[in-house]
TrEMBL record:
Its cofactor is Zn(2+). Transmembrane segments: none annotated. InterPro entries: Ada-like_dom_sf, Ada_DNA_repair_Zn-bd, Homeodomain-like_sf, HTH_AraC, HTH_AraC-typ_CS, Me-P-triester_DNA_alkyl-Trfase, Tscrpt_reg_AraC-type_HTH. The keyword DNA damage applies. Residues 76-174 form the HTH araC/xylS-type domain. PROSITE patterns: HTH_ARAC_FAMILY_1 (PS00041), HTH_ARAC_FAMILY_2 (PS01124). This is AraC family transcriptional regulator, regulatory protein of adaptative response / methylphosphotriester-DNA alkyltransferase methyltransferase. Gene3D superfamilies: DNA Methylphosphotriester Repair Domain, Homeodomain-like. One of its GO terms (biological process) is DNA alkylation repair. Keywords: Activator, DNA damage, DNA repair, DNA-binding, Metal-binding, Methyltransferase, Transcription, Transcription regulation, Transferase, Zinc. GO terms for molecular function: DNA-binding transcription factor activity; methyltransferase activity; sequence-specific DNA binding; zinc ion binding. The keyword Ribosomal protein does not apply.
Length: 177
C-alpha cells in the first residue's frame, strides 16, 4: 500500500485510503499532495473508517467523494460546450478557456477522454448536421453551410467533399428522403 501511495497509483483508488497523522487528513492513493513521511501514515479499507478515526477528507483528491474525476468532468463540460456551439461562428477557443484550463491542456484532456481532438470532434458534428440537413430539408446549400458554422460556401464545399467524397449537391441528390 505504501508503494501505491508513494507512486500515486490511481489503480488502488477505492481499494484503500491512507491518512496522515501530522495533517489529520485522509486521501486516495492517487492524491498528488506531497508524499508524507511513512511513519505518519495509516491505512484504511474505507473512507468511513478514516473518518471514524478522526481524519477529515482531503480537499485536493476529494477522498470523501466516491467517484470524483475532475479531468473527466472538464472533458464532459467541453464536449457539452462543443455540442451546443459548433453551429455558431463564435470563438470556441474563448468559450473553452472559460473552463479554467489552457488551450493546450484542454486538447490533451479531450483527446485522452474521447480519443479524438477538439477540432476533429467539431468537424464530425458539423458534417453529421450538414448531412442531416441536406437529406431532410429543402434548405439552400449556402444556408446549410452558414447554419453549421461556415463563413463561406467554398470552405464548406471543400470540407464536405473531403468528409464524404461527394459535393453537397451530389449528396443531397443521392440521400434525399
Amino acid at each position: 500500500m505504501w508503494k501505491a501511495v508513494y507512486e500515486n497509483d490511481g489503480s488502488y483508488d477505492g481499494i484503500f485510503f491512507y491518512a496522515v497523522q501530522s495533517t489529520g487528513i485522509y486521501c486516495r492513493p492517487s492524491c498528488k499532495s506531497k508524499i508524507p513521511k511513512r511513519e505518519n501514515v495509516y491505512f484504511f479499507a474505507a473512507a468511513e473508517e478514516a473518518r471514524r478515526a478522526g481524519f477529515r477528507p482531503c480537499k485536493r483528491c476529494r477522498s470523501d467523494l466516491l467517484d470524483y474525476q475532475p479531468i473527466k468532468e472538464i472533458a464532459e463540460k467541453a464536449k457539452r460546450l462543443l455540442d451546443d456551439s459548433f453551429r455558431k461562428s463564435c470563438d470556441l477557443n474563448q468559450k473553452l478557456r472559460q473552463l479554467g484550463v489552457s488551450s493546450h491542456r484542454m486538447v490533451e484532456i479531450f483527446q485522452e477522454e474521447y480519443g479524438i481532438t477538439l477540432s476533429e470532434y467539431v468537424s464530425k458534428l458539423r458534417l453529421t448536421e450538414a448531412k442531416r440537413l441536406l437529406s431532410d430539408t429543402d434548405g439552400r446549400i449556402i444556408d446549410i453551410a452558414y447554419s453549421v458554422g461556415f463563413a463561406g460556401l467554398s470552405s464548406f464545399y471543400r470540407f464536405f467533399k473531403t468528409g464524404t467524397g461527394v459535393s453537397p449537391a451530389a449528396y443531397r441528390k443521392e440521400y434525399r428522403k
